């Protein structure tokens, strides 16, 4: 069974044209699916439909075979979400933030366990005990990853996770994503970074005006070819 599945999924906000139309997509355990598309193409809408933040006007989104419904916690426990800027408490340390958000998700961990999640997310011991107000954007992303790990989510959804990260931080983030996928997590990422999409993704989707117009295996395409296809498509 796919971890994330969209069946004829569509969304129309009010009287506007459809933000998403007829999306059919299956993402398995261990896959990293990178969704490309211009501003307004429908990437965030797709993520929001899986999260249950907005309600589908057509079709359905499923997580582990369970249909997503807004305000229904059933599918939320399977998913973690990492927004472009991970919102955390500046006056709490990395460990304290992770503890707070783990408790919100219903998990209580020892300091050692919390520290192990942060270490796995590539945040060293010095950083773990520092206040979040001193963290870089890349470090905040790592706390976001640790929160996903602590929640034991099967799917991690990310909206432009590498935007604004320097090349080293992007590389570190990419390595963590690959490790998580090897452990069986499903990752769904909206991104504008074509090079990183080819580097990190197992599959790429290109969306235009709410429609998924291309789906490719990254083994079949170079970054240059993807860029060409993207520019021809949008
Ligand atoms: N809450 C909303 N109400 C009305 N229209 C919306 C709402 N959210 C998004 N839209 C519209 O839906 C379309 C798709 O937007 P969406 O944010 O999903 O695109 P995107 O691909 O994520 O863009 P970006 O790369 O800028 O984040 C756009 O036309 C946008 O204006």
Automatic annotation (TrEMBL):
Identify the stretch annotated as signal peptide in this record.
none
For molecular function, the Gene Ontology terms on record are: ATP binding
Which residues does the UniProt record annotate as the domain ABC transporter?
Answer: 4-234
State the superkingdom.
Bacteria
Name the keywords, alphabetized. Answer: ATP-binding, Nucleotide-binding, Transport
Locate the transmembrane regions by residue number: none
UniProt xrefs under Pfam families: ABC_tran
Kindly give the InterPro entries that the UniProt entry links to this protein: AAA+_ATPase, ABC_transporter-like_ATP-bd, ABC_transporter-like_CS, ABC_Transporter_VariousFunc, P-loop_NTPase
Know the name of this protein? ABC transporter ATP-binding protein
The organism is Terrimonas ginsenosidimutans
């Amino acid at each position: 069974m796919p971890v994330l599945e969209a069946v004829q999924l569509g969304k129309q906000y009010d009287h506007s044209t459809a933000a998403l139309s007829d999306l059919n997509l299956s993402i398995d355990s261990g896959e990293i699916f990178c969704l490309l598309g211009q501003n307004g193409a429908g990437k965030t809408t797709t993520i929001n439909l899986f999260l249950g933040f907005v309600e589908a006007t057509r079709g359905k989104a499923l997580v582990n075979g369970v249909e997503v419904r807004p305000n229904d916690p059933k599918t939320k426990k399977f998913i973690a979400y990492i927004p472009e800027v991970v919102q955390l408490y500046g006056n709490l340390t990395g460990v304290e933030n992770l503890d707070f958000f783990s408790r919100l998700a219903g998990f209580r961990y020892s300091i050692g366990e919390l520290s192990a999640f942060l270490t796995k997310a590539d945040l060293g011991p010095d950083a773990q005990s520092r206040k979040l107000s001193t963290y870089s954007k890349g470090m905040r992303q790592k706390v976001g990853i640790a929160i996903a790990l602590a929640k034991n989510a099967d799917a991690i959804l990310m909206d432009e996770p590498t935007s604004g990260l320097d090349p080293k931080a992007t590389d570190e983030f990419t390595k963590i994503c690959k490790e998580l996928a090897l452990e069986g997590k499903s990752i769904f990422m909206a991104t504008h970074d074509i090079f990183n999409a080819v580097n990190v993704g197992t599959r790429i989707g290109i969306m235009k005006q709410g429609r998924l117009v291309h789906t490719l295996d990254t083994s079949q395409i170079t970054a240059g070819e993807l860029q060409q296809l993207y520019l021809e498509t949008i």
